[in-house]
Design goal:
- It is built from nine helices and four strands; from the N terminus they run αααααβββααααβ.
- The chain is mainly α.
- It has one domain.
- Strands 1-2 form a two-stranded antiparallel sheet. Strands 3-4 form a two-stranded parallel ribbon.
- Strand 1 and strand 2 form a beta hairpin.
- Helix 3 packs parallel to helix 9 and helix 8 packs antiparallel against helix 9.
- The longest helix has 25 residues.
- It is globular.
């Protein structure tokens, strides 16, 4: 790729089509991470993971394929953090995220289109029909309950149902994200609330702040993905 081509890609991914609110929202997430890091200093890898996570989720909300570049960095650093904290359930789900994102790049590339009105290149999103939406919710709830029951009876998991209700919906949300469905944001919102509680209990304010911002991003993302989506 030539220098001019690289500049064009960076312009389309990071600048084109942005409103003032988009920049303010991104800045808010970054400021929160830096403030928490200054108030409660921790390992540098956590601030790296936090910043990568902010860029990843905001770019995903804006339907930009560059979300995966930051997403891979966030997942790898987060895997290291969770392993060191002995949060093996989080390790497992993030391994799933990593491999699903490899497929996600392929899917998004095929649905990445130029908006004739704005000239902006973005993902053309989809929405589930009501019957499939209800079936997805039922699957997530039932799957979480069964998983929690299994963890409670066959493992020494200290909080089996919290683990289950942050794992199964995460799998559903990730699949919907990879396939370009806006309903992913409902699942991410529930998951992020659970993860805020998880990291607060672990005493990690940086990760708790990251997930708190992600809760706000779910609303922001749902609005963006609803602008142009097909049933």
């Amino acid at each position: 790729m030539t220098t001019q081509g690289l500049k064009q890609v960076l312009h389309e991914e990071l600048i084109a089509g942005r409103t003032t609110f988009d920049y303010i929202f991104l800045a808010l997430g970054l400021v929160i991470q830096f403030l928490v890091f200054c108030i409660a200093p921790t390992q540098p890898i956590m601030i790296v993971s936090g910043i990568a996570g902010i860029f990843s989720v905001v770019l995903c909300s804006q339907r930009k394929i560059s979300t995966f570049a930051f997403g891979f960095l966030q997942v790898i650093t987060y895997l290291i953090i969770c392993y060191n904290q002995r949060l093996y359930g989080e390790v497992g789900i993030n391994i799933f995220y990593f491999f699903s994102m490899l497929y996600g790049v392929y899917v998004w590339k095929n649905r990445y289109q130029r908006n004739d009105q704005t000239g902006e290149t973005e993902l053309h999103t989809r929405r589930l029909k009501p019957v499939f939406w209800l079936a997805t919710i039922a699957f997530a709830v039932l799957g979480s309950w069964l998983t929690g029951w299994g963890l409670e009876h066959y493992t020494d998991d200290s909080d089996p149902y919290l683990d289950a209700f942050t794992t199964i919906p995460a799998i559903v949300g990730q699949i919907l994200m990879v396939l370009g469905y806006r309903e992913q944001w409902f699942f991410w919102f529930c998951i992020d609330i659970g993860c805020v509680w998880l990291w607060l209990r672990a005493g990690n304010w940086s990760m708790a702040a990251l997930y708190a911002f992600w809760c706000l991003n779910c609303i922001y993302g749902f609005l963006h993905w609803s602008k142009k989506s097909d049933k």
